Amino acid sequence: MENQETVAVLNDLLHISNDRIAGFEKVEGKVWESYPDIKDDYDKMITQSKIMKNELINLITEKGGTPEDSPSVAGSLHRIWIDIKNSFLVGDKVESTLENVAFGEKAAIEAYQQAIDSGHLYDKSLETVKEQLHNIKQSYAQFKKIEDYKKKD
Question: pTM of this prediction?
Answer without folding.
Answer: 0.81
